[in-house]
Protein 1
Amino acid sequence: MSATSADPRITGARLAPKRRIRLSWSDPTFRSIVWQIVIVGIVVGIVWYLVDNTNKNLAARRIATGFGFLDRVAGIPIGESPISYNPASDTYGRALWIGVLNTLKVAGIGIVLATILGTLIGIGRLSSNWLMAQLTGFYVEVIRDIPLLLQLLFWYTMLQGLPAPKQSWRIGDAVFLSNRGIKVPYLIWENAHTWASIAFLIGAVGAFMWNRHAKTRQEATGIRPAVWPVALGLLLALPLAVWAVLGAPMGVELPVLRSFNFQGGGTVSPEYFALLLGLVLYTAGYIAEIVRSGIQAIAIGQWEAAGALGLRRGAILRHIVLPQALRVVIPPMTSQYLNLTKNSSLAVAIGYQDVVSIANTTLNQTGQAVEGIAAIMAVFLTISLSISLFMNWYNARIALVGR
Amino acid sequence: MTAIGRWTARSAVLAGAVAAFAFGGTAQAQGSGSATLDASVKRGHMLCAVSGQVPGFSLADSQGVMRGLDADTCRAIAAAALGDASKAKFVATTTQNRFTALQSGEVDVLSRSTTWTLSREGNLGLMFAWVNYYDGTGFLVKKSSGVKAAKEMDGASICVQPGSSTELAIQDYYRLNNMKFTPILIQDLSEIQAAFLSGRCDAYSTDASALATFRFSQGPKAEELMLLPDIISKEPLGAMVRKGDDKWFDIVRWTFAAMIVAEEKGITQANIDTFMDSKDPDIRRLLGLEGDMGKALGVDPKFAYNVIKAVGNLGEMWDRNITPMGVPRGINNLWTKGGLQYAPPMR
């Protein structure tokens, strides 16, 4: 069939756009409207039946219902929380919100690290260095063949094998590595730091603008103004100057070993670290394959043509191949980001308190399983849709513009 | 079972339970007056939720037979309800899916070292039938840590199972004493025990009974572990059923009463047949020789006989399962011997 013989319904509609709808089964528009009404009716009916039946069943079993429990004082302990939490006065709602933040903390950082590692390994698989290609290939096969849950338990068990706090491995009096996690010094935050951060953001915007300017100049004149000295100045010197002007405060809180544990300083808990490590290493295996296939999808002629222009391999990869490969890579990459986020719910197996873990505890203490599961689903749906929307937007932005 | 297997199994229970609310029909009583009993008879066995991981309470032996106080509780109920202790089928549950499993009808009885609390009866649509173990929250520490009392543990990391009443009890205790602790919450029992043994936590906290049996199960290494003398909460453990089936509740409750009366009267698994010509009206009613106690419950008139023949009296159940773990009976003894177990009259 040739490309011109399009669907007759569509072409028909184009030829006679203002045709009246006949109330006849032979009318395609009428038919499609009827079908749509029927399907919407079925979906609404099923949803209504499920909700109604659930409510009846819960009432018959005399189980409390509704989301009122979100305002009740939680009283459940939470191991690590990015925001303050007091079990004696904070609500289940806040506890669940902490769970959401903990999930975002591991998923967000995990996605960034997995992308970097996966890209490096994917490029490594195509290396002309035999050892490099074999090692990365081995990594991909091994990582992809072992269930993620086992990998998480493996890393968690390994981290538990670290020495006790009193015998911890240390770097001076500042960094401690023990089975209680990694303890690092904590910067005592002051106004100067806030202003320096703002200066950094302004610098970043400035550097971005300068880069665009440089590009325009290059396209107009063929001469590219130096970017890095300006960027360095804006990103580093400017915030440092602001910080210095405001008195250069540099209060550091060191972790100190008390009777049981370290007090003060920042902590990376073994639970978080094991989960992050497991998710990053696992997802990187898949991302590596996506990157490799994306690079291989670029016609060899592109390499050869760039080579003929005198570009070196690294430059070809950076400027010619990767930007094109990105178009192939983004859609499957979105799936991997979604997978990583959803896989973070395995946290419950190793005691990291993500949203699933806290919602499980909540539904157990309040007995409201339906609401608890609904909350988990709503959270993951929101996160996943956000990732999808962003990636679709990015995909549309870098797509080839048809002219 | 492997970690993955356990994992999928428990997720399936929770997912199934929630689905049961959405898709399941509403229960209706018919026949014996107990929908649960009727369903069990039809099915040919009774479904009983246990932990399956706690020595002394429910743990499969080398033959794959579930052993322990909770497991025997299930057998006793099956013997009373269905006339055959072997008709108790065990379903392994976690602290997190146990209530959903019972609420949704996935199991008929929850016998999983579960604490009787107001909010569980008030909010969960469940009823507490009887206590098979009067327990309290305790702490297990390593002797090498030098800790001698719970009050010395300010700042400690404590391993605890999420979704348990222990979790709330410790939180209250630390709040009351103005101390801080870091909770390490892991769902899987063997994982959390491994975390404690590896030193991730300074203490492992749960019901003192489970701590004692866990310590015992460590064999020669038990000497390195110490149970702190502090018991920081009341944890009456026992069997729960769903609300809305009062006849079934009666059967479960009076199964316990029968075992207590049997112990009071000195009736054991071994000597029960010698009591069949007893003149004592209490014993005659218990064994179904007189009156119609079984009929009132909607079960076999000889239900108590079946229970005692299958698992023995309450004391025998204790001696078989808990005594080997080195735990004294204490307040779990009969009321006549300074304990709390007291049965209302069976008449």
Note: Residues 92-188+251-398 of chain A form a domain with the MetI-like fold fold (CATH 1.10.3720.10).
Protein 2
Amino acid sequence: MTAGLDPLRLTAREARRLLTDGEIAASELTKTYLDQIARVEGKVHAFISVTADNAAKYATEIDQEMGATRGALAGLPTAIKDNMVTESVTTTCGSKMLGNYQPVYTATAVRRIWGDHIVMLGKSNMDEFAMGSSTETSAFGPTHNPWDLGTVPGGSSGGSAAAVAAGEALWALGSDTGGSIRQPAALCGVVGMKPTYGAVSRYGLIAFASSLDQIGPLTRTVYDCALLLRRIVGRDPVDSTSVALPGEIELPTAERLDGLRFGIPAEYVAAGIEPGVLARFEATVALIEELGATCVEISLPHTEYALPAYYIIAPAEASANLARFDGVRYGYRSPHATDLTEMYEATRGEGFGPEVKRRIMIGTHALSSGYYDAYYGEAQRVRTLVRRDFDTAFAQVDLIVSPTSPTVAFGLGTRLADPLAMYQSDICTIPVNLAGLPAISIPCGLAGHLPVGFQLMGPAFSESRLLSAAHALEGAIGFSAVPTFTDSRAAAGGPGGTTAEERS
Amino acid sequence: MVRLQARASGVCEEDSRMIDQNDVRHVARLARLRLEPGEAERMTAELAKILEHIDKLSELDLSTVEPTAHVLAMTDVVRPDKPRPSLSRDEALRNAPSVSDDCFRVPRMQS
């Protein structure tokens, strides 16, 4: 490690200052992260592929050749979730199906930050096709939570979250369909934001559920989140669902919350939140009031229907999106077939893992003849009710807050056999995906030895307001703990901190 | 599930709350998904539990609610119909499992 640079604590804001002021070279900064990867990746497994040679070479080019032409994010070491295609860099989506896929183009969000001269350290681990809440469904093995190696990092962007928490990347891009940025951010003690649907181009993001998917940042601080988000947003001619934001994302400076009204949805707090998480949540709500804001209880009455509606809409869209993996144009092809239909069936049977198959089956069933109206049609109507709940709430309050996840990180393997228990992980994060709204998770302390996430949700295109409030709150929380890389499985009592002892 | 299936054009018996193994095999064929031995049994039980959870939606009266297909109020998005650069044949074929005469090669249609 370069003297004085602590990858567990360094922020992008500070790294950028050090680079701009010439106090460190881009090559030194990249080496700090590559050294940390060498040190802890064997325990954490945050990456599917580490592009160490390219990263070191590119950082040296930035130092030697760029000078005044350096982009806004030049030299900042970054992890990219492995469902964003990167030209000539293997992109697997966490699946055997794409185990050797070499994209011939690059996702717009990635191309934009490459244009700013970020340094890509590698492609981060994820649940297969982003279907999961623990990163355990990855075909390349699970990621371990740096706070407790016996627990999951959350998912599906668990590799991105763990990489940032473990100091293996300065920051990362993830994607969020039902909580896949915010829930792992919460479980790994980092910041994660899902922007408004349409704010970031989905071009080159391997599609899971197209009406829900959004790319967003995972970072150490709220300021860093704004710094990265403002470079990836904007209308993209090759994603017809992308839109121009009303204004540039502002870098947050607020330290107070005077005059703001926060809503606390009764339905979220009732939704089986474990005591340690609830205690941190309530302590954070008290801080909001100390910062000059008002907190009022609100109701989002259709919250309990969001999860079942999501588990129709997301699998239905996934079953259509994943029809393209047929062994013809790219990806895995089964050698065990003699005719075309057999080839399709064997390729998909062998190439997809159990959770992906389960969702394709649910989705195909829901869209099949005779069932479409009863399932997909109903779910889309429920989606309208969930949106209306938020519209009504945002007529009364500026922002809504909740725990991000009902629990802290759970033990590896403890929910894998029970899909419904796994799906409950996203109970607080799914509603905003259905409504297309932006939301951010920030660390609000520890329950036992594991981090707790605090979620702030806002109206469509309120990113700057959300970031500003999250920044003020982050300052008041003062979360400064770092991961310990210990493994509770080695100690008595097993993983999964459910104790209510709090520190921060 | 009873109400959902009652509306599902009589595809299922009204009292068969559970999806059965024949349904699972039918859906797997539609999805072009080969199930391994034992997988249909396991999947039947798992899908039944998930569908039972989803059936919670039948508590709601949705008869007057419009569906949401897309969250943003967007009208038709169009672009000028002009040719643009595209992938070369070589790039398009680069990841293909099997290529022959600059085409994707597949097994014969019928064995």
Note: Chain B touches chain A through 61 residues (CB under 8 Å).
